[in-house]
Amino acid sequence: MAVNIEQTPYRPFDMAYGANTITLNGITPSQQKYALQIFVVGQTTPIADIRQSPNRYARAIFDIQNILQTQIQPTIDNIDGLHYSDGFAQQNTRMQIANGELAQYQIAVTTETNGQLDSAFVTSPTIYTVLGGQKEYWQVPFDEGAEFVPIIDATAVGCTDINFAARPLSDNVFTILDTETGDNFLTANGGYSSPAGIDVHNVSLNDQCTKSFWQTPFRVAGPYPANSAAQGIEGFWILQVGLSGSVFNTSFLANTQSNGGGPNITLGQGLIPSGNFNVLTLATGPANFPQGTLSSACTHYYIVPVLYTPLTCVTDEQSQVPVMGVSAWRTQRYNITHTIEYSNVTDPPTPSVNQTQPCNDYPHIQFAWLNSEGYRDQFTFTKRNEKKINTTRNNFLKEVADYNDTRYTVDKQSRGFTTYSQAIKEVWEATSGYMNDEEAQLLESMFKSPSVNVRFSVGEYANQWIPINLISSSYTEKTYRKDRLFQYTVNYKLASNIKSQRG
After folding, report:
1. Are residues 127 and 167 in the same domain?
2. Could you tell me the pTM of the whole model?
C-alpha cells in the first residue's frame, strides 16, 4: 500500500509563520514510521528528513513551519525607496520580483521499518509556495490567502472576465467604492470602473512607497483547464487627477524584466509567472513615482494593475481600460495630502485632500515595516517628533596625585572620575496627525512588526531608510466612535547605538 498525501499547505501559497501541515496515511501494520523529505525546487538534497510514528488513526501529521521559516528572508530594508534616484535606493528600477521572501518546495514520502526505508522516496510533482508572512493559529488551511489571488473566467481564448479582484499584499484596509471617488474617474479613460473597490493611501509629496502583488491569477472555467494559472500583470495604468476631478495625465508602465519585473521580456508576451515572478513589488510613492513625472497639478493619482486583453474582447463585469487590459487587482489611489481634514457631513468623518501644508505642521517622519504578508507597508507621521539622547556611562576613580615626582603634587586639571566606556542611544517620540479607523488599523500592523524602518525628511538622516526598534510595548486601539478625533504617539530608538570615545 502506497503512502498517500492527505493534507497539505494551502495553494497557491501559504504563510511561513503559522501551521503548515502535511498529513500522511497508508502505512501498513508491518511498517513502523512515515518518512518525509522536503526539497527546495531545483535542488536534489533535502532541507529536511523527518520520521514519525503513526497516530491512533494510522496517520502522521507534520507541521513544517519551522523548516520553511529557515528558507525565508525578509524583504530588503530599503525596498521602500525603490526607484528613488538620489543614491539611497537599492536599485533604480521601477519594480522588483520576489527575493528571499518567497520559497518554493516539493515533498517526497515513503515508510520506514527498523531504521530502513521500506521503499524509495516518491516525490510529489506538486510545487508549494510559502511567503514570509504570518497567519493566525486557526487558519488551517490558509483560506484567507484567496483574498490576494485574482480569479478569472476565460470565456474565450485571449479574453478575460474578472470573477474576483485581489488585494495587494498589504495590511491596508482603507477602501472606497469607485462611486465615492469624488471625481469623474468613472467616465474617464473609456469608462473604466473598479467594482471591487479602491484602496486609499494618504501620502506626502516626499513619501516613498511600494505595493506588492501576487501577480498570478487562477482560472476557474473556459477553454483552459480549471484552476490553471493565467498570465500575470501586464503592466500598470497610472492616472493623474487634478482639482477638477479630471484625469489629465495617463501613462502605462509595462511589467517587463527591463523595468525590474517580468517574466515578460516584451510587452504583450503573456508569459505565466512562476517562482520569484509570482510576486511583484512596484514603486508607488510621490517621491519614487513609478512612471514619468508627477505633476504639480496632481491632487491624487490611481495605479491600476491590468491583464492583457485584446480590444475585441467584451467583459461582463468591467469595462476595458483603453489600449490594454482589465484590472484583476484592486486599484490603488494615492491622495497627496499634508494633513487630513475631516468633514462634518459624515459620521465617522471621511478624509479630504488638502495640498497646503499648515504652518503648525512639523517635518514629516515616514515609517515602513514588514507587514503580516511578509512585504512592506508605509505610513507618515506629520506632527511633533522629538529626539532625546540617553547616555549610560561606566566610570572609574583614579588617583589625581602624581607619586612619581620629587614631591607630592596635584594638577588641578587631573580627572578623578573617568569614563572608560559609554553607550549613547538616540530615542525619539513621533506623533501622528488625526487618523481614521482604517489608518489606525494599518498602524496596528506596525506595532506588531519585528522589522521597522524610519525615514526623516530633514537632518543628518534625511531621505535614508534607517532601521529602528519600537520602544512602546503596548498598543491601545483607538476608533472614531470611542475617541472621536485621535492621534497616535510612537516611541522608538535607532537600531544601533552611537559610537562613543573614551574619556
Report:
1. no
2. 0.86
